[in-house]
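Team,

Forwarding the record for the chain on the shared tracking sheet. I've put the sequence and predicted structure together so nobody has to dig through attachments.
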Amino acid sequence: MIFINILVYSFMAGLVTGLGALITILIKEPSKKLLSLALGFASGIMIGISTISLIPESMEAGSFTLCFLGFVSGAVFLWLIDVSLPHIHKNETNCDMYMKMGYFIAAGIAFHNLPEGIAIGATNEVSTQLGLYTAISIGIHNIAEGLSIAMPLCMGKVGKIRIIFITTMTGLATLLGTIIGLFMVGVSQGFISFSLAFAAGAMIYISSDELIPHSHSVHSHTANMGIVLGIMLALLLK
């Protein structure tokens, strides 16, 4: 029964990512300032979670070597995806740019949600109350992550149903991680350490390569405000 409960909590924590997409769709056409704020906010969350939570937790779960290898692997993996995608550069339309950005954010957050799900499963082994608290915390910022994914996809003219599907499936990586965490926490702390650092590397790459440059190109001051707010949220959810 306890096993089923934590899976339900994890499922709900992942599902609410789609709520962020629904909010974005209701906004319809965001202003330049709002778009810049959202992109900056997404990068702030990713940088904050990576540096405040994922990397320290990776070091604690494993070793410096595992953390280092995981971080580098995550960044290199996203770089390989980036260079393998067709690049239009100067002929790239705004729709193409925002669509690609939305998919990149979704990929990064999916990588991040997997070890977060593992964390839910792992903390549940320590205490069911702690597992529930972890799931609620993750669910709260999953709504913000849904907004971060959906905003550029909307600007890229992606269909509404597809946007909701992408954001929801991204969030449900949390459930997969929880299942892994429930079965592997006692087997391989090294796996958890590597996974946490891998997610951190992927998110730092996305923030640096896509989110920060584009948020500043739209409206620099608002972008800075978004980055600060994102890091503040990451601190509050620590």
